Amino acid sequence: MNEYLLLKWLHVLSSVVLVGTGFGSAFYMFFANRSGSIAAQAVVTRLVVRADWWFTTPAAIFQPLSGLWLAHLAGWPWSTPWLALALGLYLLAGACWLPVVWLQLRMAEMATAAARAATPLPPLYWRYARRWEALGYPAFVAMLAVFYLMVAKPALWH
After folding, report:
1. What is the share, in percent, of the chain residues with pLDDT greater than 70?
2. pLDDT above 80 for 131
3. How many other CB atoms sit within 10 Å of the CB of residue 89?
4. What is the pTM of this model?
């Protein structure tokens, strides 16, 4: 396998890890938050934080590095319209994701404390949950658009 194909395989694999882990984590946290079970919320928020550190973060770092390397190997300038738009959307998703990581850390702490003390979650948890969800939607849509751009490589403007 040549360098380009190996890098392309790793790039696709890491994109699946990035978006798949993000979507899976969001799915479980979304429903845990609606379960009425503080114990479930404590477990799920802790695991979501762990998944972000173990899977999402390395993939999020590898994605632009491998993508720009692939563009270089293929001879595409970074100013190629579909590539420039994909990079911009990736930055938008990242700008949403960074505060989400912080929110998840705080939510995990609050849920764990409430589960241990057998007390309700504080109102701040629910404010953070709403922000977490509000940031997740544009990040996910941006990543879907990035997938489209990477596959279709459409002619957007000249």
Report:
1. 99
2. yes
3. 21
4. 0.90
> Angle between the 3-32 and 38-51 helix axes, to the nearest 10 degrees?
160
How much is the average pLDDT of 42-53? 96
139 close to 86: Cβ distance less than 8 angstroms: no
Distance in angstroms (rounded) separating the CA atoms of residues 16 and 55: 10
Chain mean position to CA 121: 25
List C-alpha distances in Å: 119 to 37, 39, 112, 115.
11, 11, 10, 7
Burial class (CB in 10 A: 0-12, 13-18, 19+), 151: exposed
State mean pLDDT over 79-102: 95
Please give the Cα distance from 74 to 141 (Å, whole number).
27
CB 138 within 8 A of CB 124: no
And the tokens for 34? 């609606």
Report the Cα–Cα distance between both ends of the chain, in Å, rounded: 34
Closest CA to 86 of 141, 140, 144, 149: 149
